[in-house]
Amino acid sequence: MNYMNSLRTRAAIAIVSLLWINLGMMVLRYLWGMEADPVVVLGGGAAIAGVATLTWWRDRTGTATQISTALAHAASVALLVYAFSGSPLQIDMHMYFFASLAICASWVNWQPILAFAGLTAVHHLALFFLIPAAVFPGETDFSRVVLHAVILILEAGALVALGHSLATAFAQNDEAMRETEAANKQAGEMSRKAEAAQQQNLEDARSREAERAADTERLQFAMQSLGRGLRQLAQGDLRIRLTDRFDETLEVLRSDFNSSMESLEQLVAELSRSARKMSEGSNDVCSDAERISQRTEQQAVSLEETAAAIGRITENVQTASKRAGEAGRLVDEATKNASVSEQIVSKAVSAMTEIEGSSRQIGQIITVIDEIAFQTNLLALNAGVEAARAGEAGKGFAVVAQEVRELAQRSAGAAKEINALIETSSTQVSSGVTLVNQTGEALRSIGEQVKHINDYIAKIVDTAREQAADISEINSAVVNMDQTTQQNTALVSDTTKSIRGLATDADGLVAKLAVFSVNETSTSRPSAPAARPKTAAAAPAPKPVRRAASGGGAAAAAAEQWDEF
Amino acid sequence: MQHATPASSKTLSQYRIVGINLAVILFVLSAAAIVPRNGQALVIVAPWSDPGRVIDVIGRAGGSVMNGTGAPYAAIAYSDDPGFTLRLFKSGAMLVLDGSLAFFCRSTSSL
């Protein structure tokens, strides 16, 4: 049964009891004296209370009981109001409606509240119109009914809201109670589990204590064994191994120790071998370095000689360059001379042309003279004819005319010879002009070739100059190589000293590593490869050849060159 | 024929219980409303009775007529003596109501 049912059960008793108390109040009113019919008031009151009580008896908290008791209360209060008919207190009895309504709210349900309010409203409205004196004393109006109705509605609404809140609160309370009960059960369960866990913890603690003691014993054994091994390790004995088995959890420690010792032993053995190899190798390197030092000195001398030879080559090249420059200058002059010859040839050509023109003018003059000679001969003939006509008087004149005729003939003959000579001269002048032109062409071609020669000589001069610069650079490079070689010589001597020191240190390392005792098996394994450096040290000369053979043909050739060098 | 489910039968039973209570209440309140108070009663006889029948009944019950109504078989009577209503029924009244309910019969100032 939850809290709500409990509350309603108790409220039901009070509500039903109040019905009978109302009946008692009616009896008192009757005894006091009332206008209302006592049969109706008392009988009706008893009937209403009785039926409601029977309903309650049948179902203590049912919804029908709640509604019925609420209706019974409304009717009971109405009967009380009716019983106070004619009394000025009748209006005050209306307050009992509101009180009873509030009491009915203890059902915590909206249904009885609405039933009470509904019945009261219907009752008042009906009686106000039918028998106002049954509900209100004296004169009254509808406003009073409305006022009572408003108050009734307000109270009913408030009570419904209150009931709803209470119902919600009760529901939450019941839920909380259920949760609390569940939590209590869970807490009890947890408590039992905690006790069991505590018991289990005690047992575990005891077993852990026993395991801890056994672990401590095994740990002590392991620590003693490890201490013994470490003491022997401190004494340099690397052959120690832990043979007694440890506890399973510490067995890893023993195996790690043994493997560490084995690794350390192998490491020291390999270290010894490496130190011996290093010592032998250092001695080999030392002798090689000394030979390299000697060869480097020879290289330096050769470089000095090379530098001197290159210096002489440089001087020769510079001399050749100067001579080529002089040849260039001579060619320049030849070029200038060739251009002057060209001018002379052109002048000669023009002179020859003028000679040809003069010959042509002479030829023309000769032609004029030949014409004059022809006319003179013709005049001499005519004069001879005239002289003949004159007879003996004209004989002298005839002789003169003959003489003139002969002179004219000789002038014509001379003119013909001169004309032939002039033609010959013109032909020769033409051939001379042709020859002079050919000479000019030849001189021009010579000039162009001289120009080409000049260009080539200029290129030769530039090339010689560049060769001189290159040879100067080669010379400076050889000088640098000479200096570097000298520095290398110094470095090689320093390296030789360092290698000697390294050989000494390797010997010391071998002596120090001899402190550790290792098994023969550890040292015997690398003994075969250790023999190889000894043979290498015994015959160091062919060593570079062997290395080169493993490295490739080019390297071998380089090594041979170095040997020859 | 189908049987009602337990839930519906329970609801029906609850309606019945509330109905019984409401019937009793309405009966009592109606009785209170219609039972005469202050000695005034609306006396109604059978409509088919003689016109003076209602006067006769009131007289035999020891009351006096205060006012008449629109109907000849109804009148408003008055008596200070207790048990007036019971005497009216014994005298032959068919229905005795409270005097304030005389408007049902359109009360008049004379018979």
From TrEMBL, chain A:
Pfam families: MCPsignal. Residues 217-269 form the HAMP domain. The chain crosses the membrane at residues 12-32, 39-57, 63-84, 114-136, 145-167. InterPro entries: HAMP_dom, MCP_chemotaxis, MCPsignal_dom. Residues 178-213, 521-565 are annotated as: Disordered. CDD domains: MCP_signal. Residues 261-306 form a coiled coil. Belongs to the methyl-accepting chemotaxis (MCP) protein family. This is Methyl-accepting chemotaxis protein. It comes from Hoeflea alexandrii.
TrEMBL record, chain B:
It comes from the Bacteria. The lineage of its organism: Bacteria, Pseudomonadati, Pseudomonadota, Alphaproteobacteria, Hyphomicrobiales. Keywords: Membrane, Transmembrane, Transmembrane helix. It comes from Hoeflea alexandrii. This is Uncharacterized protein. The chain crosses the membrane at residues 15-35.
